[in-house]
Amino acid sequence: MTTALTAPSEHLNIVIVGHVDHGKSTLLGRLFADTGSLPEGKLDKVRSICRQQGKEFEYAFLFDAFLEEQEQGITIDTARTFFTWKGRQYIIIDAPGHKEFLKNMISGAARAEAALLLIDAQEGVKEQSKKHGYLLSLLGVRQVAVVVNKMDLVDYRQDVYKAIEREYREFLAQLKVTPERFVPASAKLGDNIVKQSPNMPWYSGPTALETLGLFRKETEREHQPLRFPVQDIYKFDARRIIAGRIASGMVKVGDRLVFSPSNKSANVKSIEWFNVEPAATEARAGQSTGIVLDEQIFIERGEVASLDDSVPLVSTTFRCNLFWMGKRPLETGRKYLLRLATREVECEVAAIHRIIDAGDLAARQTQTTVGRNEVAELTIRTKNPLALDLYSDFEVTGRFVLVDQYDVSGGGIITEGIRDEQTVWREEARRRDIAWVKGEVGPDNRAAQYGHRAALVLITGGRHTGKSFLARRLEVQLVADGRHAYLLDGENLRRGLDSDIVEGDAAEMVRRFGEVARLLMDTGLIVVSTTNTFGQADHQAIRTLVNPAPVIAVHMSKTEEEPPSHTDLVFAGPKDFDDAARQIIEELKRRGVLAHAIGAKPTFQYSI
Amino acid sequence: MKHLRQLEDQSVYILREAYKHFDNLAMLWSMGKDSTVLLWLARKAFFGHVPFPLIHIDTSYKIPAMIEYRDRLAREWRLNLVIGQNKDALANGMNHQLGRVVCCTALKTNGLKNLIAEKGYTGIILGVRADEEGTRAKERYFSPRDKHGDWDFREQPPELWDQFKTTFPEGTHIRIHPLLDWTEINIWEYIKLENIPFIDLYLDHGDGTRYRSLGCAPCTFPIKSSARSVDEIIEELRQTTVAERSGRAQDEGRGMELLRKDGYM
Question: Is residue A218 pLDDT above 70, yes or no?
Fold first, then answer.
């Protein structure tokens, strides 16, 4: 009996995958039994169940804890077992190989650092074996070893083994996966599992157990640039803690953090812990931690903090590889929830470029749907911009899942960020915000002094709908209430700031308008504006330039026309403009721009 | 040590995800070593606070020392303790002699289900571990139960890249299992590392026995052991090949499979 008397110094997550009936559970049972790693109760329990059912004991039964499974002879779900060998604890994820249970295999493989792939020597390389290899490469499992099992059924023939090795190596090479090694074995009879087999003198390489020992620990993520996805903001006591798990790199007290996509920045004042004495002043990749900033900037779950010399991409559009396991097919045009690190955003599939048959890696004809268990190259477009990275650069912020209805139904890795129509504005806003020189008076000081936060009220609509009149009434009412408001008309820029612009260069006019609005809001004002000068696309540009300041969009119309997207209030050519202005003021209160009662000391949850 | 911190980081991440996604969340606390570690991890995750109630399903057959310990920690750690009890079943004389699975189902499973229905909890955090027994090895971190509280282990959602199942139809609730990857030894190593107060029924007090797993008094038996400290427990566990729950009567036969399919912890 071999037992570990000292604590293991290292832990490795391993997934064992293979076609149904290729002998995964048997291999596991054998590994455990032959290394003396089984608890006494377990073996006896399984033996007695076998006796009750009048069956011969099999090693596979050890891992098929459910009786139903034993009747079917398939591992239903990802079972996790542990065993320790030579100072290293292996967390073994036994992934089912049956086609229907592919999603469980994915669940298992997604957290594995290395994979042991099983092939039946008698059956050879099957479609499933290819699919498994493909999924492992897609899931980013880089260390793969292959066990060619059931060698006893082919009389331990070297030529059979060599042919399988050659075929599978060629296949994996197309995926840029290089298996570490191939091991000919028979789990049932114990050949080359723990002990070198006398039946295959032509093989002198490592056994399956030694192969596990040869897997390396994955390289540390802490040497990469910082990525800190915000998980939550806590205010349980006087501290306002930004909680999250560091995806890569490290963060220290004093670091200046930039949050994407809002482009807000502040310095790390302290790093918070519970029951850690003395409190550490830095945190690194993998740690769940909490950060207190030196300024009360408003940031939300889903933003990604980084240092300003290595910021993530921000976009609404990217190209990816995705595997689908949803109950219904993935379709272009349908809305899905995309979850990337802690960010959740609505998205749709903009294009399906190709669907890959995992069997031969051939591209199938372009379709508008991706079926269950298919893998595809797609372009995805999200409703709102999000921070992301390429999977080849960053693991955690380079991959995402899609939720269809209530279920996580697909997983993907980002292969290319694509510029959208807002990219140019977004990049300008980002460069400007990151480099912004702040005075001693911050937005929260101004908000406390003025009794409101800054915001932009943008009134859109056709000609002669009363936009200008409403804007004027609103400015009058706000100022009468003691608010700091200002009417910004595009016309006022035309003769002055814009006087050098060549007629027709609308883009530059929009850019200047956005920058002026941004500047006025930085002074703490509620900016009220109409947009006679600008078209629909320009409104989006203005939003991007002033992001993340609150924008209240008000649409005026005399017809039943569809208001622009992101519209907050719609008025059908109001007669009572004062009432319309009051409704806008209510909306400003609802959005937290205005405190609810005039004269009351405003208590803002946050500032911009 | 490094591995314990990795386990801690993952559990804390899961607890924070649970807190973010479920408005009506509660944590089950049996005062055993596992759920006490879980409670400690909640204090880690929320910087000394426990922002949700702790449920104790009181079967009335618990060992008295456990109740004492419960009330002391609840006071010291300012816990919001919610005690659930299937009073109807107890009034009708439910006890383990009527059958262990019957008794566990009535007093624990139904006790919990009744409380969930009464309070409208949508998420319940539990301290089950994958290495305890076979059915728990198949669990997910976020594991849905349908409106009858049943567990459909065949249709479990995948858990890719720490993206858990946090959306679900009306009427279902989610069981959250932050300790799934921990082993029995990890629990004791962590208790030692963090100096977590634990109930001393787990130690030998001179008669050569101690409890390795705690449940109701009539159905939980001490094991032969002379471990008098956490260090000695860890040492003993490194050498033992006896299953942890060997002193738990409900595990006999297909007990746990039947119990858990119906919504047992």
Answer: no
Tokens for A273, please give them: 């812990």
- Which candidate, A18, A145, A129, A102, places its Cα nearest to that of A411? A102
Distance, CA of A60 to CA of A62 (rounded, Å) = 5
Instruction: Pick the closest to residue A320 from A379, A402, A392, A362 (CA basis).
Output: A379
Measured between CB atoms, which of A5, A232, A236 is closest to B49?
A236
Domains located in chain A, CATH noted: 10-214 (3.40.50.300), 221-307 (2.40.30.10), 313-423 (2.40.30.10), 436-590 (3.40.50.300)
* pLDDT of residue A146 exceeding 90: yes
pLDDT recorded at residue B78:
92
Query: Per-residue confidence at A533, pLDDT binned at 50, 70, 90?
Result: low
Q: What is the pLDDT of residues A445-493, one digit of tens each?
A: 888 888 888 999 998 887 778 888 899 999 999 999 889 999 998 888 8
> What's the pLDDT score for residue A243?
96
Helices (H), A97-178: 102-109, 127-138, 158-174
Tokens 């020992």 sit on residue: A213
CB of B204 closer than 8 Å to CB of B225:
yes
Within 8 A of B140 by CB-CB distance, chain A residues are 107
Instruction: Tell me if B138 and A406 make a contact (CB, 8 A cut-off).
Output: no
Q: Which domains does chain B have, with CATH numbers?
A: 2-183+252-261 (3.40.50.620), 185-251 (no CATH)
Contact: A411, B159; criterion CB under 8 Å? no
In the predicted model, residues of chain B with pLDDT beneath 50 are none
Chain-chain contact of A7 with B13 (C-beta, under 8 angstroms):
no
Convert the pLDDT of each residue in A401-433 to its tens digit: 999 988 888 988 888 888 888 888 888 988 898
pLDDT of A360 reads 54
Q: What is the dihedral of CA A482, A485, A487, A490, to 10 degrees?
A: 180
Number of Cβ atoms within 10 Å of the Cβ of A373? 17
Cα separations in angstroms, A125 against A80, A119, A183: 26, 7, 15
